[in-house]
Task: inverse folding
């Protein structure tokens, strides 16, 4: 189950996100919590986020998306997740869709917790909190028994400085300008469903669960069938590829054997030709050497005879004298 909760500040989507995580055993991906965790862990993305926050700048979408992607790779997010607080505008939604598509985990549903502006104003400006025990009250909807004092511990209740009317109006204006267009974005994708955020927390939660049962369960079943069909097709393709590969390997082996036979025959022929050529060269060389030797021997004989004749002639001449 992969869903994103949409809603203005004070709509109660954070409360509903927690209930969904408890029921379906999937993590709540709240970007504020993730940023604090990454900063505390001093991770690379956390350090980049801290640098931006220390400089009074907004943390970039790339850093936030990187943190979300890192969170979605953990084992508890395999069966799904609930996104709370992100995306906040159309560009972020587009980047989120692209990132989830790369992970093979596209969003299945966008649930808008819709609350009238007047009710939101009362919810946000009427909040009072106990700094001692953490109890939360609302002077309009769930006031303490004694005004200004905690029912549980008796401590003085605090009113957050950013819960005044001017600050709340500005926050709601920012939401209407930047985040409200997400309603049209997810509606165009056919993923938007709306729940009225008025009434008890449990009633709102039941309505959300009903939507999930109607919208996601059939879709999940269809996706499972599609995945099974895809897996079967992949197996058939793998078998066919293996068969073709075996044929290619067999043909390659036959070609190699034939090539070896041709090479052996060619080598034998070349060896025979080389031997014949060598014998011819040796015969020719021997003939030439023999001829040269005969010529040299003949020349030597002639020279010796000439020398002998000269010597005999000289001897005869001496006798005559």
Result:
């Amino acid at each position: 189950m992969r869903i994103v909760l949409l809603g203005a500040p004070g709509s109660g989507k954070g409360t509903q996100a927690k209930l969904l995580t408890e029921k379906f055993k999937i993590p709540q991906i709240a970007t504020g919590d993730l940023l604090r965790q990454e900063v505390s862990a001093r991770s690379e993305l956390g350090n980049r986020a801290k640098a931006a926050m220390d400089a009074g700048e907004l943390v970039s979408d790339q850093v936030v998306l990187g943190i979300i992607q890192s969170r979605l790779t953990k084992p508890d997010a395999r069966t799904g997740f609930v996104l709370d607080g992100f995306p906040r505008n159309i560009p972020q939604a587009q980047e989120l869709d692209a990132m989830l598509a790369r992970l093979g985990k596209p969003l299945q549903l966008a649930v808008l917790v819709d609350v009238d502006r007047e009710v939101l104003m009362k919810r946000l400006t009427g909040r009072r909190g106990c700094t001692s025990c953490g109890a939360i009250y609302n002077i309009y909807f769930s006031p303490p028994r004694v005004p200004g004092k905690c029912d549980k511990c008796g401590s003085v209740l605090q009113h957050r400085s950013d819960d005044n009317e001017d600050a709340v109006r500005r926050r709601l204006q920012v939401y209407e300008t930047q985040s409200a267009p997400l309603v049209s974005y997810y509606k165009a994708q056919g993923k938007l469903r709306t729940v009225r955020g008025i009434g008890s927390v449990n009633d709102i939660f039941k309505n959300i669960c009903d939507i999930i049962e109607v919208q996601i369960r059939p879709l999940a079943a269809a996706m499972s069938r599609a995945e099974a069909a895809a897996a079967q097709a992949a197996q058939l393709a793998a078998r066919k590829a293996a068969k073709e590969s075996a044929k290619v390997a067999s043909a390659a082996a036959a070609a190699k054997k034939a090539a070896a036979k041709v090479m052996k025959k060619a080598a034998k022929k070349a060896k025979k030709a080389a031997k014949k050529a060598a014998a011819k060269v040796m015969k020719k060389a021997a003939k030439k050497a023999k001829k040269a030797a005969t010529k040299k021997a003949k020349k030597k004989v002639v020279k010796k005879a000439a020398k002998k004749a000269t010597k005999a002639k000289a001897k005869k001449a001496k006798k005559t004298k």
Observations:
- The two ends are 145 Å apart (CA to CA).
